[in-house]
Amino acid sequence: MPGSNNQLTKGVRPRLLIAVVGTGTEVGKTWLVVELMQDFVSKRLKVSARKPAQSFGEGEPGRTDAELLAEATGESPYEVCSKEFWFETPLAPPMAAAELSLEPFFLMDLVGSISWTKESDIGIVELAGGIRSPQCEDADALGVVKAIEPNLVILVSDARLGAITSIRSALDSFKVEGYKPDHLIVFLNHFDEKENVQALNREWLSGKYEISVFTNVNELEGEIEKLLPF
Question: Domains (ranges, CATH) in the chain?
Fold first, then answer.
């Protein structure tokens, strides 16, 4: 329920909680969240972003996902992602921890590190990698989504050849796990309507498969704002 507390996370749950997941890695999840947050801030909405765990290559600090999200929301990077879950090696978080000879961590550790330190109209939790990418020893991104009980799930994909398979496979994983989000949106990132295959992908996804598909950030913002409980 909007505004209710999830017992697994700390603080006051945002009025609208959104989970952002991808069909895979490098599909532009962080770019999208930054765009959304910057625009919501410009509309004087109170926002927060969380990245439960992140991994990155050597020399990337300063431009990690948590730091980019913090810039967009005005929060501390360590509010966005707890310091213990920053892993300086480009692997899925639990694999990175093992590679760095760190202690294994589990779903309750990861979700319990999410702390909503201020009241927010909109809170976004961005998961690492794709929907089935490991986030901890005992859960993938979908497992974390189920645990935090968001009001809306946004699945981010590219729009190129193969997007339909990636998107439908990701959505099939929801069914396999018996999870039905309250609201679900697919966002085709960097969509180019002049590219015939991209236009056809959108048409098939929204028409033939009856999936709610957005390709424009401003239109997506409008749809999100409709879900705000005020």
Answer: 10-226 (3.40.50.300)
